[in-house]
Amino acid sequence: MTAPSRGGTNEPSGIAGVLADRRATDGAQAIATAAREPFDLIVTDYNMPLMDGPAFVSYLKQTPVTEGIPVVMVTTETDEKLLGPNPGAGVIAIFREEFCPDVVGPVLDKLF
Predict the structure, then answer these.
(1) Which of 34, 58, 74, 110 lies in the 20 to 30 Å Cα band around 18?
(2) Are 7 and 19 in contact (CB under 8 A)?
(3) How far apart are the C-alpha atoms of 94 and 77, rounded to whole Å?
(4) Residue 6, domain member (yes or no)
(5) Which domain does 34 fall in, by range?
């Protein structure tokens, strides 16, 4: 999970515009982090231990403190049946794990 933190004072992590870089080893840890820290954007993987990306996003969108946070999903999945039109309500974009800034930039520009 990676996101710029609202009002954060952390040094940039090397990605333009990212003020805070928080990582979780699994979906359960990601939920705990999202519940206690404010985020403007969450970037999550489709495949995670304990709770996959779609389940994580579903939980976020059902929780008042996190329901309004936009979510971008990255994946190595190629099966369109798994990805569907929206693998979790609230996902604003899905990118293959090997994406370039030219692809992500326009999506982020629309948000911020």
Answers:
(1) 58
(2) no
(3) 10
(4) no
(5) 27-111
